[in-house]
Amino acid sequence: MAFRLRLFLEKFKIRSVVLNAELPQNSQLHILEEFNAGLFGILIVTDDNQTKEKDHTIRESQVQSRSTKKKFQQNLDAKFGVVIGIDFKNVFTVINFDMPRSPAGYVHRIGRTGRGRNTGTAVSLITLVLLCHLP
């Protein structure tokens, strides 16, 4: 799903990149560095490796230098598949293209936006079929 979304955005000349736990850690770090350098406006992240890909989009985040890279390498979250311990800053929007299976997974996702005194928006796109299967 994440790669299909990336290809869809590419058709509209919207630069995006996919980050998921299946990528080697060095690749994940490289993607974050490129994203933070402004090479991509949208970061598509899959965060649940126990089910099919669960995607959300993070815009305009920044990841801090070496200490964060070290945390990144040490704190891969096996439950959600994407790192914990990285303080994504300036995340204004999280879009759930597919819902997590647990409330904890949902909170993990939307917790990336609106940190501190900042406001943020979380949008979840669901179908009636999916709505019937939510916990």
UniProtKB/TrEMBL annotation:
GO molecular function per UniProt: ATP binding; hydrolase activity; RNA binding; RNA helicase activity
UniProt xrefs under Pfam families: Helicase_C
Protein name (Swiss-Prot/TrEMBL): RNA helicase
Keyword Hydrolase recorded: yes
Coiled-coil portions: none
Cross-referenced SUPFAM superfamilies: P-loop containing nucleoside triphosphate hydrolases
Alphabetic keyword roster: ATP-binding, Helicase, Hydrolase, Nucleotide-binding, RNA-binding
Domain Helicase C-terminal: 1-135
InterPro entries in the record: DEAD_box_RNA_helicase, Helicase_C-like, P-loop_NTPase
GO cellular component: cytosol
Species of the source: Ananas comosus (Pineapple)
EC top class named in words: hydrolase
